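User: Run a structure prediction on this.
Assistant: Running it now.
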Amino acid sequence: MTSPEQPTRRLPVGRRFDLRATAMFFGLAALGLGLLGLVVRMALGVAERRPAWAVILLLGVVPVLVVGLRRRSGLSAARLARRTTRALEQATATALDALDAERPAEAAAATVEVPRVEAPTAVVPDHDALSPDEFEQAIADLCTRDGCAEVEVVGGAGDLGADVLAVTPDGRRLVVQCKRYGEDHKVGSEELQRFGGTCFTVHEADVAVLVTSSDFTAPAADYAEQCGIVCVDGRRLREWSEGARPGPWDPSR
């Protein structure tokens, strides 16, 4: 009796295993991950100093992206290697070009010398060498320099004690009498009394100032303090001229 033959079952044919392609794939994947770590590390240090380099370093991510797209695009191991090599070459070339472009700019910046600008020196006139009329004009110029408006020199015969009239920066009426005296000639109390009798009643001063190139006697200084007249002696006049002291109408004087 003959036994019936049993049909032989065929095993499904699977996809052929390519050891070389698999090894190359994992090698490129490891290279890509290492390169990615290097790029991130370099980017953290370089981005602060040179933001333009952050863009250049991003080109190093291209090989990693190519490896990631291999499964989707079905690239062969050989083509993948070629594309990765080209991406690395382009990134290197771009980085070298940027470095060459920066070196001349840095060298030029290092050699450029910024010209030093000297602050203008204030010219302080020798008040003792001025004539009485020139002295009055010098006081008027100081008032104009420090922000007074409507500055006018009115000294002369019949001036009734007013040599310079002006309006202070805060809007008060300023009346100034000028005494260009020698060092040994001090302003006395009689001159202060004459000025005090006209500066407020006749000229309607809000601020009355007597300026001299010399000094004041003690009785004159006492009278001025009682009447509210501001006294500017030779020392204070020089400080005012040099800008070390504000105008005599300033409360902080």
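The first helix runs from residue 19 to 49.
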